[in-house]
Known about the structure:
Largest sheet: 17 strands, mixed
Number of helices: 5
Radius of gyration: 18 Å
Shape: globular
Strand content: 35-45%
Structural class: alpha+beta
Number of strands: 19
Amino acid sequence: MKIWTVNAFTDKPFEGNPAAVTIVKEFPAGALCQKLAAEMSLPAMAFLKPLGINHFHIRWFNPGSEARLCGHATLASSHILFQEGIVTGKRITFDSFTGPLFVRREKNEIILDFPLQRTGNTLSTHLFKDLFNEGFVQAVQAYDDVIVELTDEILIRELTLNLSKVKNIECRSFIVTARGNAPYDFISRVFAPRLGVDEDPVCGSAHVKLADYWQKKQGKDRFLAYQASARGGVLDITIVGERVYLKGKAVTIMEGMLRITTDRLTGKINELTY
Length: 274
């Protein structure tokens, strides 16, 4: 069982969002996948099961739970499949809990074809305003996430949140965003303490919601976005109907072999091989 680590939404080592990627004949037991993701201690680990030519079932695990959608780990997985020559041509299909996902490669960039997730109702301000000293505009429901808009980019970059309070909010990820300064249309940061990820460096799944949020605000279908974590990352976003295209690059950091054997049905560790 080979495992790669990849930095996604960047072409530079030690930037972007790191993910672990492995390819399996059959998925290990969910509890074991969860232990492996926690052991890797990265924002996400992707497990790929081949289904056919250029066709895979993908599952993602954060350190604390299984995810229903993960953009950066899908980008990292696609990068490995192209890099290792496991796929032929320039297109990949992934089956997932969120439905079919599509990937294509154009030159040295990878484009994720994901469902656009529409934002919903405006939420009561009293739930969120005590988290911010200034600049609060509004909060909206965004599927299983919450999006909070602040008045300007500087507030996003300088923001320090009380994560214990964030953890009490009923959401997968807590997304804070504002209009960006040129060249960026908008800027964001993403916090997911409930998933074991205090701050997600560059979150693709957040941007399938942010794309809809800012399309309603700006009336555009093309954006250049920046996620202002310590590592940072740039996303080129295009909305086409009910799909959103996320364009990015990735770089492989390391690869290694898992040195245990397991019963895939029970997840029990049978033998140490090192």
